[in-house]
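Below is a complete specimen:
___
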Amino acid sequence: MDFFLQLVVNGVVVGSIYALVALGFVVIYKSSSILNFAQGEFLMLGAYVCLGVMASSAPFWAAALLTLAFSVVLGLLLERVALRPMIGEPVISVIMLTLGLSAVLRAVVQGIWGTDTRPFPPIFPSEPVHLGPFPVSQGYLWSVGSVSVLLVAFAVFFKYSRPGIAMRATAFSQQVALSMGISVRHIFALSWSIAAVVSAIGGILLGAVRGGVDGSLAVFGLKVVPVVILGGLDSVLGAIVGGISIGILENLSGGYLDPVFGGGVKEVAPFVALVLILMVKPYGLFGKIKIERV
């Protein structure tokens, strides 16, 4: 039983970070109906930038704030240079552009920092906290707490703030949003900046929890795809539920099935879940059902 609970706790921790990265997918999809396949590279780049700033003897919190500022600028720059000229083009063309962006960002990171794993300085206290019968790393608890606060803050932002409501209006119809005086270009820029920021936070937390950063962090972008499909592409609540569900599924698969099959089940399980979800409920648990008659 202790082993099962430990796997569930680890799954909740990883799943909460999945949920945060999934929020980046949701933000962009809600405003522009585009699935951004460069989300994992945003995460990896954020972790490397924070590590690079800390290497100059800057304290962690200063490095984290500079990384978030960098992410805002990165989101604005990409939207202005790469995405804005694509307004009005077919969605598949924009999605292919995000695939190209992911390749470019990965090449830039490898060109600057190389491909070796770089150790991430310890940020959280190393003493574990005992929750019942088993110990839990303080880094895990800080990660879950930070992600929970951010997800609630973004949920309130989308529901009650003027920019959040404008983003929802843009997602509903760009023509209607324009007729109401909403700048679609500004909404796109805001959504890409938010996506870059939440991914950077996820990258920093993963770097701190794992104790190192490398190119494999970009794979988290692909792992989060089953999360957003399960929860629904346009649902913040779905990102939370989907992230935690996939995180727990991944850890239980790794704990119980990897020893039986010789490994690898943990990596495959989210994508098996993705196929099953698409077959049973293609719009996810909380996604809006859109029916198009042709």
